[in-house]
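Reopening: histidine kinase still failing for me.
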Amino acid sequence: MDGLLARLLVRHAVGRPVDRAEIVALRRLTLAVLPALVAVPAILTLVFGVATGLPIGFALVTALYLLAALALVSGLRLGSERDEAETVLATIPTDPYEYCPGLFLTLDATGIVRAAGGRDRQMFLSFLREPLSRAFVEQVHVSDRLAFVQALDELRLGADVVVTDLRLDRPVIGLDQAQFLNVRLDMTAVRSDDGTLAGVRAQMLDIEGEMLMRDEVARKEEEASAAHEIKSRFLAAVSHEMRTPLNAILGFSDILIGEYFGKLENDRQREYVQLIRQSGAHLLSVVNTMLDMSKIEAGRYELMLEDVDLAQSLTECERMLSLQAQTKGVKLTSRLPKGLGEISADGRALRQIVINLVGNAIKFTDAGGAVNIDAARHGNEVTISISDTGIGIAPEKMALLGRPFTQVQNDLNRNYEGSGLGLSLVKGLTALHGGTFRIESRAGEGTVVLVTLPADGSGARAAGETNMVEFPPRLAETGTDLTRGGKAPAHDEAKAKIA
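Support: Ran it again with your exact input. Result attached.
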């Protein structure tokens, strides 16, 4: 009978092993029902006859047996599951902090440890020196005890949460262990009904990995700073060494062009001398730009502030570049309103900004195009705008602008000469004046460059406190999504700061 009952239970166990208690209970139920299986049909036969009473009796007893068996097995299984759940719950710690990382401490208002828990409790308690019923400050390195006391005092004064980084003294130092353990203590105030501090729940986390990462970042920063300084010195030294021979080349080529010591024999010689003069002048301008950049980068570019007539300065720049624009077939115009007045700035730096921007606009504008110089005054700010109808800049290339020795590389403007220093120098000079720099452009349509400077020179005086600007200058954040045209997302305020 037990084997038959076991086979029946297996069919309905759904992969669950058959419980011996279920077989015993069903066996007892079956033995109890067997007398009724004989008695009930016999009684019904006397009442209804053999043909009717016998099948009804067997069916009734069988149905009652099956219902009783179902109820009995279900009750046993529900009870078993309940017992299993209670057993599992009994093994789970009631404190939820046991599943949280680190060490959880309960401190009283004076900072004495009253309880400890947490997932990493064993690791921390093996490190700490019997923390229970002792002041936690005794575990902290003497240099960081003041920070812990201040954090506890902030909680007493009303703060709800205070986070502080501390060093704990190792009780025993191994061969491969440091003397201190760096931890982060996140302290939460527990207050009584009247608002006074009743206790503190603190979570302690090991931040050794974070401290190692900080040290590595600091080391990399020092290496980058040293390489940066070496590069700046190299640029300054090379620029100074090249200017002397270049000045000689330009001077002697001017003498040859003027034919002061004899006539040149033919036009080809005159052409070659002119090319030497133009190439030397171009190389000298690049060297001067590199020197100015190295000065800005090192914080040694001194602004000589003076009152500059803005309209007159812009007009002079227009005249200087008019021949270049005429040779290129580009129309150069200026639209300067009356009443621009004077601006307190370095006149040479201001002209350099305008000349570089206008020169770039002419260089990247094809014949038949136009370059415009505009200016406007709004309160204490002056905005200079250089616009062109040139090749423009693709949106994804905007983040590359302003990096030294970098040009926007594509099939169209690869043919244009230049060192890629112009915008970097403009950005640096604008930063020294405490101004902002902005570019708006669309590929194939043109570019607008906006330079805004404080009219009273206040930005330059503020920048002069450190006299250093960020290099390489940035016109837009790397990775900025510029899907509609090449417009920088916001004014790039070039605040003077240590590079």
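Residues 409-414, 466-499 have pLDDT under 50 and may be disordered. If you still see a failure, please send the error message rather than a screenshot.
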